[in-house]
Design a protein that fits this description.
Length: 354
């Protein structure tokens, strides 16, 4: 089912994804495909068993009565999903789709349930089925695009985000997601346009919550401020300052793991933002974080080098890279980056001279 989804994968641009790695690997393996087939066969068998017993129950001694309608199974599936009875909900909604194959809201709800069950690979075909029935669903295009983004299917993700914007030009969630893919494709003008459009509307929508978060931070209520900034980011992901302010709160609390996670999230939205790479480099190098020290050093170097790639005149980043190499006893590399920093600084001073 998923063979066509794996074409054109780019594994070098999505190294920021760490925790979902197992999902991506399982998504691409034959074992996972076999598991999916067995899972669907099991559901099919159970479904027909349920049909049989329902028929026997309804028939009774007085003869058969009308079978429950697709509406019945849809409402039952919605109730089961709301109560957290996810497996039962999938069965009910699957029966609904058998009785009424055009009822795409049931397919959407099955996809939503699978996402809640952390079985994202099983959600994808149901969202695809829904869009085959009714393509005019910008929200579902965004959801499916985010699933493809999760599995590093960049071309498919870009296609669905673009379709969402085409249907609904005011869909800020889709526009914000498109920024990253436009940058990866080298279309920087489109990236800027999408970012600016999203930022304007999101800033207005989030203004009150941002102000409340700032007041809470000023009063020292970091917990409340962090919660408000997290809500802003969830609702308005293009608001860059919300990430940076939340980063400062985590850094002040010396929770460098959380601080780095916030910056990594911002990096997904703004992959061309020099400052986020510099801050991540400093955080990974200087912050006390769980995990092997070598991993943190590698992450620091990777981010700082990306900052220099974006802005070759960033001499501070060059000097920090040199400092890191000195710290790990790589003197040759340290001297090379020290020299790069010196030349970058000279270029900057030359431009500043009258």
């Amino acid at each position: 089912m998923f063979k066509t989804c794996g074409q054109g994968r780019n594994r070098t641009v999505d190294t920021w994804i760490f925790s979902p790695l197992l999902y991506r690997l399982s998504y691409l393996t034959t074992v996972k495909n076999d598991t999916h087939i067995l899972h669907m066969r099991k559901l099919s068998i159970i479904k027909y068993v349920i049909f049989f017993f329902i028929f026997i129950f309804l028939a009774g001694p007085g003869g058969a009565t009308a079978n429950p309608s697709w509406e019945y199974y849809y409402e039952r599936g919605r109730t089961q999903a709301r109560l957290g009875l996810y497996t039962s909900a999938v069965l009910s909604l699957d029966i609904c789709m058998d009785l009424n194959p055009k009822h795409y809201p049931a397919a959407n709800l099955i996809g939503e349930v699978y996402v809640k069950m952390n079985q994202k690979h099983l959600a994808i075909p149901w969202y695809k089925k829904s869009l085959e029935i009714n393509d005019n669903q910008p929200g579902i295009h965004v959801t499916l695009g985010e699933l493809y983004e999760f599995f590093s299917e960049n071309d498919l993700a870009y296609r669905h985000f673009s379709r969402a914007v085409a249907i609904d030009p005011e869909n800020d969630r889709a526009r914000c997601r498109l920024v990253r893919f436009c940058v990866l494709r080298g279309d920087y003008q489109a990236a800027r346009n999408n970012l600016e459009t999203s930022y304007r509307t999101e800033k207005e929508r989030s203004a009150k919550r941002l102000a409340a978060a700032a007041r809470a931070a000023e009063k020292g209520d970091d917990k409340k401020a962090a919660g408000l900034y997290e809500r802003v980011i969830a609702e308005s992901p293009c608001i860059t300052e919300a990430y940076l302010d939340l980063y400062e709160i985590h850094k002040r609390r010396k929770d460098f793991t959380a601080a780095a996670a916030v910056l990594e999230a911002l990096k997904k939205i703004r992959p061309d933002y020099e400052k986020v790479y510099v801050l991540l480099g400093y955080t990974y190098f200087t912050g006390r974080m769980a995990g092997p020290r070598k991993l943190r050093i590698d992450q620091a170097l990777e981010n700082l080098k990306k900052a220099v790639e974006i802005n070759p005149d960033n001499h501070d980043a060059c000097y920090t890279i040199a400092e890191i190499y000195t710290d790990i006893k790589k003197d040759i590399e340290a001297r090379q980056w020290e020299e790069k920093g010196r030349k970058a600084e000279e270029r900057a001073e030359g431009r500043d001279e009258p």
